[in-house]
Recover the amino acids of this structure.
């Protein structure tokens, strides 16, 4: 199976400063290493009071840097090489002292020197006492850092180690990870507004029962997340799903096929790309009981009515220059069935899932699709849904450039 992510093979420098939140970053480093990043950890002397260098060396599988002129290090110019060779430099947690030093352009230790030498994006994650964070001097320093071109991510609010409440907690890794992923992603969708539909729909029978399907929404959410990482303005229209919405994405929650239809047609009217990845119910019950029907009163036959064909309607109203992408879940004759939908529904691209495979389609984290356009088809590798999403977005960019 092909496994790839935006972090694979990237040189990421993680600077750790003297805060109790340093222990949280151990998990960050571990996850980046699992994603096949080349993680170089730089610790200030204060940071080593909270977590030992050995911990980060074990988690990253690489040397940990600390002293400016460490003769035992493999590089006598580490203070230059670290920043020069990095694809991304992250400081987490960033203390008030470190923020003040960086805003003044000081270079009195290895980390601050590496930042000055960096030619990559620098992302700073503050973590400190809430009063220290709110102090006018700290806020002025953060503003200066932003004006210098650094990205400073607002900390979380909550109870801190000092028992005070307020802003100053280090953000959680799932949030931080999106900032890192965006900084490492090519911004080739920056001028696009993309609508993505995801998940199942539910067609109510009564307040307790409904018709639905096995879709989890994972593929649609992955498409929305990856498009946002690549700079697009993204609207995600989702049926019921337990997945956490991607950072920075506008989410419209719906239940029924009609609700999804109304929301999708409205948003598509002023979007450049529409990707319909949702598994919409084809039929709905003709009647709805406002009270729960007792099982002894349930009719053995359920009368159904057709739901609107959202993809067909999108194809009918497609504007010049707009790209329309559909998905098809098939268990046989993938190319033939996909080709029919491509033509009938006026699509630019269709991704066909083989739902007979246990590693693709509904509910799983991997996928393998066949992409069909008007010029032919291409079978994508079995890989993660996020990698599949990026490969689909690559094809959309290719179509845009034709």
């Amino acid at each position: 199976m092909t496994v790839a992510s935006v972090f694979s093979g990237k040189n990421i420098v993680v600077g750790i400063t003297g805060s109790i939140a340093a222990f949280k970053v151990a998990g960050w480093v571990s996850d980046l290493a699992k994603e096949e990043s080349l993680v170089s950890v730089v610790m200030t002397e204060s940071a080593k009071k909270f977590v030992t260098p050995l911990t980060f060396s074990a988690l990253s599988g690489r040397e940990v840097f600390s002293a400016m002129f460490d003769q035992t290090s493999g590089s006598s110019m580490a203070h230059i090489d670290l920043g020069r060779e990095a694809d991304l430099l992250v400081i987490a947690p960033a203390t008030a002292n470190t923020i003040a030093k960086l805003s003044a352009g000081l270079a009195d230790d290895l980390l601050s020197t590496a930042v000055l030498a960096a030619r990559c994006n620098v992302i700073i994650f503050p973590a400190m006492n809430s009063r220290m964070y709110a102090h006018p001097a700290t806020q002025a320093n953060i503003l200066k850092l932003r004006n210098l071109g650094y990205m400073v991510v607002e900390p979380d609010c909550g109870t801190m180690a000092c028992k005070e409440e307020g802003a100053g907690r280090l953000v959680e890794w799932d949030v931080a990870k999106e900032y890192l992923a965006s900084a490492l992603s090519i911004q080739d969708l920056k001028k696009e507004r993309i609508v993505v539909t995801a998940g199942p729909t539910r067609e109510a029978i009564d307040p307790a029962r409904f018709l639905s399907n096995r879709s989890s929404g994972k593929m649609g959410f992955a498409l929305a997340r990856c498009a946002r990482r690549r700079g697009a303005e993204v609207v995600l229209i989702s049926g019921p799903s337990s997945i956490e919405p991607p950072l920075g994405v506008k989410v419209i929650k719906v239940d029924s096929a009609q609700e999804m239809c109304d929301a999708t047609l409205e948003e598509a009217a002023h979007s450049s790309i529409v990707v319909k990845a949702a598994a919409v119910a084809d039929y709905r019950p003709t009647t709805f009981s406002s009270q729960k029907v007792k099982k002894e009163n349930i009719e053995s036959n359920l009368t159904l009515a057709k739901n609107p064909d959202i993809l067909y309607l999108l194809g009918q109203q497609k504007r010049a220059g707009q790209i329309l992408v559909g998905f098809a879940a098939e268990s046989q004759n993938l190319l033939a069935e996909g080709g029919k939908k491509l033509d009938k529904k006026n699509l630019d691209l269709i991704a066909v899932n083989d739902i007979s495979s246990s590693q693709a389609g509904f509910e799983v984290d991997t996928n393998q699709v066949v992409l069909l356009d008007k010029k032919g088809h291409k079978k994508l590798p079995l890989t993660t849904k996020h990698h599949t999403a990026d490969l689909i977005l690559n094809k959309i960019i290719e179509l845009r450039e034709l």
